[in-house]
Description:
The complex is a heterodimer.
Chain A: H1 5-20, H2 34-56
Helix pairs in contact in A: 1-2
Chain B: H1 5-26, H2 32-37, H3 44-53, H4 58-71, H5 77-80, H6 84-100, H7 106-113, H8 116-149, H9 153-201, H10 204-211, H11 235-251, H12 255-262, H13 267-288, H14 290-298, E1 309-310, E2 313-314, H15 319-327, H16 332-368, H17 374-401, H18 405-429, H19 435-455, E3 456-458, E4 461-462, E5 469-470, H20 474-499, H21 530-547
Parallel strand pairs in B: 3-5
Antiparallel strand pairs in B: 1-2, 3-4
Helix pairs in contact in B: 1-9, 1-16, 3-9, 3-12, 3-13, 4-14, 4-16, 6-11, 6-13, 6-21, 7-8, 8-9, 8-16, 8-17, 8-18, 8-19, 9-13, 9-14, 9-16, 9-17, 10-14, 11-18, 11-20, 12-16, 13-21, 16-17, 18-19, 18-20, 19-20
Amino acid sequence: xxxxxxxxxxxxxxxxxxxxxxxxxxxxxxxxxxxxxxxxxxxxxxxxxxxxxxxxx
Amino acid sequence: xxxxxxxxxxxxxxxxxxxxxxxxxxxxxxxxxxxxxxxxxxxxxxxxxxxxxxxxxxxxxxxxxxxxxxxxxxxxxxxxxxxxxxxxxxxxxxxxxxxxxxxxxxxxxxxxxxxxxxxxxxxxxxxxxxxxxxxxxxxxxxxxxxxxxxxxxxxxxxxxxxxxxxxxxxxxxxxxxxxxxxxxxxxxxxxxxxxxxxxxxxxxxxxxxxxxxxxxxxxxxxxxxxxxxxxxxxxxxxxxxxxxxxxxxxxxxxxxxxxxxxxxxxxxxxxxxxxxxxxxxxxxxxxxxxxxxxxxxxxxxxxxxxxxxxxxxxxxxxxxxxxxxxxxxxxxxxxxxxxxxxxxxxxxxxxxxxxxxxxxxxxxxxxxxxxxxxxxxxxxxxxxxxxxxxxxxxxxxxxxxxxxxxxxxxxxxxxxxxxxxxxxxxxxxxxxxxxxxxxxxxxxxxxxxxxxxxxxxxxxxxxxxxxxxxxxxxxxxxxxxxxxxxxxxxxxxxxxxxxxxxxxxxxxxxxxxxxxxxxxxxxxxxxxxxxxxxxxxxxxxxxxxxxxx
Lengths: 57, 549
């Protein structure tokens, strides 16, 4: 059985990196660096998932 | 709403991962049990998240946000009152019978406890309703993406259906469950930034409370009278209709959710599945309802955010997508739309996997070909997955052509589901209840539900027999239909059971309270004991209700 934390971690790590490549984009209303903060959060979440999967092996 | 390359890349990445999970799991599917029940081998943290993700479909995410905008914080009752207590009940009291009886499905439990005709009635209605629910979900997805992105209805429906088909065809229930967990995290992480941005811009919770009428920011305070809240429901209708009949009818008997717990790798894990799931579930109103409430406050601030009009009022159904368009730049917009797509797909896959299990075991194996090889049943399960999705697609097109088919299906679904909890309650906790009693009780419940709908009117719906009473909202009408259906089923089941011969006690071991050994969990740490977990869940949800009274 695959350790589900592995694909989940990889997915969010990649989404986080993608968001960090789009930091200059700004929303119509808020105008803040949403992609930066969300990208960092997803990167951290993905890394934690991968770490948990690696620790379980 | 305009998408850029990065948004499409995120969507494509998600598709690649869900398909990849399907391909990885395919290798371990060797029997019909692997495909349809995961061979009871899934870890508890996965079954717990899948338990709520299977219910986190399109109607949940988009609909709850819309209800938040329309009814305010009272919508949270669908979680704190209409889900958590029932999830605790199924985990503590009912799962020992579902899991301990070794039944492969909820209808199969009914056969073991009662008889073949009760199982047949439940299996047939459930199979039809499930495939139609999946179709309605597809229809909603097609319409939403057509409205928001200008995508073709056909392309949206076929793309999502094809992806769900591939990963459920390859890996069956395990693949659906694993993907539901990915979808759950995507939904939570995809919408959480929107909640933070919308609430912060509206001035926090106090800013929202200052801009909206008080009824929008309290869960219980305005429930004393049906005229004093926008739902048109009073406390008895809310507690008995939603909090008891509809909620317990869904969370305790609907195979779509119960199947996730039954896939757990032990009895203890199966019992803890709904209890662990209850913790994230009680916080879901902050992800799906709060943005809707914030949207109503934002619409009054003159900051360039408005809800489109529909008829005489705002189009609440567009609360979530208009917030995304306002607060998400390209990149997060891709994540948000992918989360939306994930919610549709998790709901669809949940329906399809429940459908193929019930069709293969409870209809095909029982009535069409009882003694075939397991290889044959695995083949039937896979073929059923294909035609289940094809039927769902056909339903989506039918719903597009006849718009009121959605209302009709939801109505029939409530007629069938509401009385079912009475059947299970009596079946599990009263050994005197009989198969004839259960079957006639179910039929009586359905007739009672149809009669109440035919004799009452709400928002122009119902009263097709006579107009005896008018309800302020269809929601209030639905709650009362459920109360009558449950009561009729309960009363008729008791009366007919007393007049017919029960099964001997020797045949009821593992199926009825008092004749089943309830697993002992002394010596386990508190977080592994269902009783202690249940108390923690109930204390936390009580606290939520007090805070947002």
